[in-house]
């Protein structure tokens, strides 16, 4: 663990830094068509490069994979896009461009109990800027009670997402240690449309906040082999630091992990599912 950078964010308090946008790949504009099994939208997606999938095509592919698993005609192309780290993009309401990639296939449980979300995506750039987890230096209540979770699911950060994505994302169940306060707790479920990955979902061998996503597993990411999680920017996870009453963990730019006071401001890489 990169102890030298621990708590470096504490000094900047509530400062919010402007993110920078990397080069855009693919198109995020919504397309048309039905999302039924073997629909014209799925067939259109199969016929083109995955990086060019529209939001409607991403959702149609996800629903087809959720219904059919590996038998979906779109499964192989979606998995290849995930393995390659193919980036998609969407324009936010503030004019900035959010880039994101597939990190999970049939991974997250839908909140309504109807099955799995076919695809889960995670942002890869910093256009949601650097944000605090809480207004005060506490992790009591964990992700469940955090200010950042509220802002992502119904507040100012949610409002940055275009209507097309707000109407398409599906509520999923996320397992997280939501106790905080300096002692480990039993993971409990929250229902989220927009969420942050946990340290378990990135590294696989930390705590029990869910299950490692397929993208990171395919890269062999663990707490001792973390280059596959590198991204240039430090960014929050939703996992508390169990042994401390003030901290949440974040992914370091080189892929390692560390923790920051809840008032610190790593960047925010939102995740969502179709």
From TrEMBL:
Origin superkingdom: Bacteria
Short name of one Pfam family: DUF6273
DUF6273 domain segment(s): 124-262
Database matches in InterPro entries: DUF6273 (IPR046240)
Official protein name in the record: DUF6273 domain-containing protein
High-level lineage: Bacteria, Bacillati, Actinomycetota, Coriobacteriia, Coriobacteriales
């Amino acid at each position: 663990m990169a102890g030298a950078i621990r708590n470096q964010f504490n000094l900047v308090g509530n400062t919010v830094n402007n993110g920078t946008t990397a080069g855009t790949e693919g198109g995020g504009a919504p397309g048309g068509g039905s999302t039924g099994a073997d629909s014209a939208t799925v067939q259109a997606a199969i016929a083109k490069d995955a990086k060019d999938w529209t939001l409607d095509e991403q959702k149609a592919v996800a629903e087809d994979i959720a219904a059919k698993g590996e038998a979906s005609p779109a499964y192989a192309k979606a998995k290849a896009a995930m393995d390659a780290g193919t980036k998609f993009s969407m324009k936010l309401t503030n004019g900035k461009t959010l880039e994101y990639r597939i990190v999970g296939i049939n991974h997250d449980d839908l909140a309504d109990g109807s099955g799995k979300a076919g695809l889960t995506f995670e942002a890869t750039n910093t256009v949601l800027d650097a944000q605090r987890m809480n207004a005060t230096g506490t992790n009591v209540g964990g992700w469940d009670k955090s200010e950042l979770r509220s802002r992502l699911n119904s507040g100012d950060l949610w409002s940055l997402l275009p209507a097309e994505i707000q109407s398409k994302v599906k509520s999923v169940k996320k397992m997280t240690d939501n106790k905080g306060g300096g002692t480990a707790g039993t993971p409990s479920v929250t229902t989220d449309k927009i969420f942050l990955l946990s340290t378990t979902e990135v590294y696989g061998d930390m705590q029990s906040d869910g299950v490692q996503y397929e993208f990171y597993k395919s890269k062999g990411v663990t707490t001792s082999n973390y280059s596959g999680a590198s991204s240039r920017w430090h960014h929050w996870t939703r996992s508390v630091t169990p042994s401390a009453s003030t901290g949440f963990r974040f992914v370091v730019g080189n892929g390692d992990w560390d923790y920051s006071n809840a008032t610190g401001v790593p960047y925010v890489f939102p995740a969502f599912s179709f």
